[in-house]
Amino acid sequence: MSIIETIRERRSVRTYDGQALRAEHVELITGYIAGLQAPFGVKARISLIHTGGDASPVKLGTYGWISGARDYLALIYEEGPLAREGAAYLFEQVILYCTRLGLGTCWLGGSFSRKDFGRQTAPSPGEKLAIVSPAGYASERKRFFETYVVGAEKHHRTRKPFGANFFHGNFSTPLTEEAAGVYALPLEMVRLAPSANNSQSWRVTLDGDVLHFYRTFSYGFSAIDLGIALCHFEMTCREKGIAGRFEVSGSAPVEKAQYAVSWVQDSLIHPKPQ
Fold it and tell me: What is the distance between the alpha carbons of residues 57 and 52, in angstroms, rounded to a whole number?
């Protein structure tokens, strides 16, 4: 499955069948995590936690949002420049990998017990527990709670039009897919990125071959949301043979949002047809 297909395939799963991850999936996930490194020099780590099936199972509270999950991924990071963005980028790589394995996941930013998960991840004084996600086998049956939540969030799952978050030169000129050129597909994958309450709090401006990425001030998880979007963007660029790099630019225009990072194009290495 390509990264583009994986991004389009991923869905939030809240109800699981109660089975622990099979040994082969545990090995694949832990091996994949071991080979990753967070971007921007960010110090972050991901733990795979098993709730256990013995007489004293590990208690992990998710306040009713998740049912039947036996295994969880937990994201821990150290504060620093672009720390939350880099940590979220790292976590989304693992989420997409789990999707490719056919596993269900669900980003949880506030609806989990930090006390319970903190006992299992043991953050050091300089670390923060940011995000958790179940990782497991989706149940064929959904709870009433999940049906209700999904129904209530139906309008949230819609995505804003392409030109609502992507701009040409400044925030006054919406960017069209035609004007985006080779970046049309990577930006479309950004548009499909999950975000807290589907706020889609990222903004991007195209200036020549440089794209400037911003986060809005309106939502507490905007840096996490942007990190997911950056992951989608760069992984799609790599898949399509678009060479470039992220760097912090001192010449980025100040707009109606907080500047985070820029993508600078190196060259096009035989870009594949869209």
Answer: 5
Strands 71-78 and 127-136: antiparallel
Q: How far apart are CA 69 and CA 242, in angstroms?
A: 38
CA distance 172 to 51: 50
Sheet with 166-168, strands from edge to edge, namely: 166-168, 202-207, 210-215, 258-268, 242-247
Distances (CA, A) of 74 to 52, 134, 146, 153, 259: 16, 9, 22, 25, 27
pTM comes to: 0.89
Higher pLDDT, 32 or 149: 32
CA distances, 176 to each of 25, 58, 164, 187, 200 (Å): 41, 50, 10, 11, 18
User: Residue for token digits 């701009």?
Assistant: 167
Instruction: Confirm if 72 and 111 have CB atoms less than 8 A apart.
Output: no
Q: How far is CA 229 from the centre of its chain?
A: 7
Q: How far apart are CA 134 and CA 116, in angstroms?
A: 14
Q: Where do runs of H (alpha helix) occur along the chain?
A: 3-9, 23-34, 83-100, 114-121, 144-152, 162-165, 177-180, 184-191, 222-239
* 73: pLDDT strictly greater than 60: yes
CA atoms of 74 and 68, how far apart (whole Å):
17
